[in-house]
Amino acid sequence: MSIDAEVKRVVQQLKGTQKKFSKLLKDTTWIEDARKYADRQGKEVRKLLKGDANKVRKFIKKEMKELDKIQRQIPREVKKARTFVDKQVKDFETLLDKVTGRKVKKRKSKKATQKTTAKTTTKKATRKKTTSKA
Fold first, then answer.
1. pLDDT value of residue 14
2. In contact, 124 and 131? CB cutoff 8 Å
3. What's the predicted TM-score (pTM) here?
4. Quick count: other Cβ atoms within 10 Å of Cβ 93?
């Protein structure tokens, strides 16, 4: 009989637990409470993220301005470096000419060189025409 009594006691506990569980399922107020709690927590998180997002946005805008400024300066810096190197090359060539004892030649610019080569090619073409007639 002790086994029957123990089985009855376990069955009674299961019935009680089943009643409590069905009561919880039918009563949905705890679900509403959980939803309200989640909404409140979501609002808090949004506030925190919004503040951080604004800080990040301000930082990015500031860095974009700095980057634009640097990008605008790059061509000027390249031009300065190029003129500096050209000047150094000229100085080095004159120094080298003085050391070796050669006459100092003036360097022609690219445009002047192009003009002289164009003139010589046209003179050669006209000479060929005149020599073929004779």
1. 92
2. no
3. 0.35
4. 14
**Residue 62, H or E segment:** helix 29-100
Please give the structure tokens belonging to residue 2.
């002790």
CA dihedral 96, 99, 100, 104 (to 10 degrees): 60
Mean pLDDT of 30-53: 87
Backbone Cα Rg of the chain: 47
Q: Are 107 and 90 in contact (CB under 8 A)?
A: yes
Give the position of tokens 């031009």.
Answer: 79
Q: To which residue do tokens 């604004």 refer?
A: 54
Residues 6+ apart with CB under 8 A from 108: 116
| Two structure tokens written together for 42 | 């979501």
Q: What is the pLDDT of residues 56-79, one digit of tens each?
A: 889 999 999 999 988 888 988 999
